[in-house]
């Protein structure tokens, strides 16, 4: 299943709308970090036969992904166990891996990614963002306590999944905003667990946009735009964001205001080399 927010044509359109890059949608190099078993990369490689795709993940995971690519006859897609592949890449996609790193490791990660980016390449970083991510962090804590200390990863993951299913089934039917939000988070965790059984036990630290942007600037990257709207339809971006900028808020202050106003829990932020990003939007 292609991740809509990570589709190269969409990434190119978003970046180009903000004055960054003019990539050939047919010929490009695309790297996905923490790619899993290739659910995103396999259909992309089939759709863009002239492009080159690389996926990186744990050895036991990419072994399955490589077998799937071979059965599909995809010669433009390869997988590698954890490690830095040879760049440069026009697109680098880093999803869940980023929030599972310590602050030091996040900086090292961004430093390595910056070396892998083509001169006008773009980086997509997904992460849990405050304030909305607090609810999912609390849920993960509850699920993690379902496991016993002596259990191995498989048993512990199974125990967490059972508690998740019980919670989802036991929610009252009332349609309150808090319950709707809780249902959405439980559904998100269920989908994540189906794709990666051990995901419920993985650390996933919520971050603030200021921290992510600060770490990116330290390695020569800067903000381009956000791939996820604050709320469906992007209404806040069209109304509140311009108003706050006109009132003298910096781009960072306005973006963090959107997070507060919408209770956003997930971001997928596009970065580029600082000299290519639009500085007024990132200041």
Structure write-up:
Strand 1 (29-33), helix 2 (41-47) and strand 2 (52-57) form a beta-alpha-beta unit. With 283 residues, this protein is an alpha/beta fold. It has helices spanning 8-17, 41-47, 59-71, 103-116, 133-144, 153-170, 177-195, 209-218, 235-246, 251-262, 279-282; strands spanning 29-33, 52-57, 77-81, 89-94, 117-128, 221-226, 266-273. Helices cover 46% and strands 17% of the residues. The chain is built from eleven helices and seven strands. It folds into two domains: 4-130 and 206-228 and 264-282, 3-Layer(aba) Sandwich (Rossmann fold), CATH 3.40.50.150; 133-201, no CATH class. Strands 3-2-1-4-5-7-6 form a seven-stranded mixed β-sheet, with helices on both faces. Helix 6 runs antiparallel to helix 7 (177-195) and helix 9 crosses helix 10. The chain is globular.
Feature tags:
11 helices, 2 domains, disordered C terminus, 283 residues, alpha/beta, Rossmann fold, 7-stranded mixed beta sheet
In short:
By secondary structure, the chain is of the alpha/beta class. It contains eleven helices and seven strands.
Largest sheet, spatial ordering of strands = 3-2-1-4-5-7-6
Poorly predicted spans? 279-283
Query: What radius of gyration results from the CA coordinates?
Result: 19 Å
Main beta-sheet strand count, sense and barrel state: 7 strands, mixed
Structural class: alpha/beta
Number of strands: 7
Q: Per CATH, what is the topology of the largest domain?
A: Rossmann fold
CATH class of the largest domain: Alpha Beta
Compute the number of structural domains. Answer: 2
The general outline is globular
